[in-house]
Amino acid sequence: MLKQHTNDNRLNGWHNSLPKVRMIVGTAALLLAALQTIHAAEPSSVAQQADTTPTFSNEVVRILQQNCQQCHQPGGIAPMPLETYEQARPWAARIKTNVSRRVMPPWHLDPTIGIQEFKNDFSLSDEGIQTLVAWVDAGAPEGDPANLPAPVDWPNWLEWELEPSLGPPDMVFETGPIAVRASGGDFWPSVDVEWPELVEPRFLKAAEIRNTIQGRGALHHNNVSLRLEEGPSGRVVGAGAGKRWDYFGEDTGIKFSTGPGVINFGAHYFPIGEEFEDNIEVAFWFHPEDDPPATEASVEIHHLVDQFDSDQPRGRDILIPPHGTQTMYRTWVLEQPVMLNSFRGHMHLHGIAMSIEVVWPGRVDDYYGHGANSRDVIASINNYNHNWQTSFIFADDARPILPTGTAIVMRTHFDNTENNPLSIDPDQWVVFGGRSVDAMSHFHVSATYLEEEEYDIMLAERKLQLKDRMQRDGTFGTALISIHPNERGELENGDEESAQEETAESP
Predict the structure, then answer these.
(1) What is the pLDDT of residues 170-203, one digit of tens each?
(2) Model confidence at 298, in pLDDT bands (50, 70, 90)?
(3) What is each CA distance from 265 to 223, 227, 237, 268, 361, in whole angstroms?
(4) What is the third-level CATH fold of 1-6+169-291?
(5) If DSSP codes are grouped into helix, strand and coil, which group holds residue 182?
(6) Which of 348, 28, 300 is nearest to 161 (CA)?
């Protein structure tokens, strides 16, 4: 049912960007559900601490506020809060273990491969990890409580997380009661809600999904799709552990045609030992009618890596032998230029890694002259975790700008051996299926389709951004990977030539 519909006056005063603390709330999650309390050594007194020793009141709590408390707060999705020293101290040893292994925070991208610049990056820096480890090794001292920062006023998990920044939503839809059973297998309810016909097309700025506290524990994922009789249809927003919303930005939006159609809620539940009723809602924020975005993003493109041919039965593609592995890939060849905004992977228990590789069109210049086609792995999920549905949102000046003819190769890897602790029974064959114990492999990609002229303009703007970055910071950063290698070569050679000229002119 359509729950709420407001006018455009609510759009006035929207911020140009989300505060960082809000940007990371929906995708940042730090779940220690399987952890058991492990007591570290008794804390040393403040007087015994060296000046260089990290303390909770100085360094540690600030790291927890930035990277952990989004979930580790009262009412959050984590099993325990980490807001105070009394709350964090019993978990010190386990904190050290999990941050050292980069299990927590659950940011599963390989930090050594591809683009590393994302709007919602809540991973710990090497310095942050070293600080937490040093704190635990020193006995987890409290420090002087007078040095504590002000506590963060986190949003209520039952309220819209985007509302403080974007204002009240323009439309809210809900499923109504969904009965969740206490026991048995997974189940997948699908609910259609009528979509009202619009007078004029509208561009979606952001979308967010929420459900009940009990429902959060039983809901593996929920995908909300717009299905129009005429016009673009497809997935708009997906939610799961670690992800509730998508924010497309001030310059980008998804076009909603006038309709008619339906909003579809496609949910996946697993019983948690208690019977209850859930209710799923989705909120939409639109760009003002008189101020459409500069670029149009597609609805989330759903790539089925586990289906080689569209006319094949789904179950024929995945076949993981006992104590074996399988690698699958799917190639998307661009028939027009594209800018990638975000991506997320989706597998089940046997999935261990995913990657996105770009094979650039045309011959490129290399050390030996005009050489072969070049390729880059732009992102590698090397530590995939079935429990998290994180969407990786590229920073604005790192969004890959891909010309016509680019091949995007999406790879997935399955492990049904004893090396994968989530493999329930390695003695069994594993095939495609919707249950968590079955296998599945999907990539969800948000992209902006470009005309050739738009591509040229964006490419020129990006090169100027990269030149400014080099002059300011002395490095292009990993954003250099976002453009064609020949364009990178011009930038790099240009900077080398400029440096040589400056050296020659120096007295």
Answers:
(1) 999 999 999 999 998 888 899 999 988 887 888 9
(2) low
(3) 6, 11, 10, 10, 38
(4) Jelly Rolls (2.60.120)
(5) coil
(6) 28
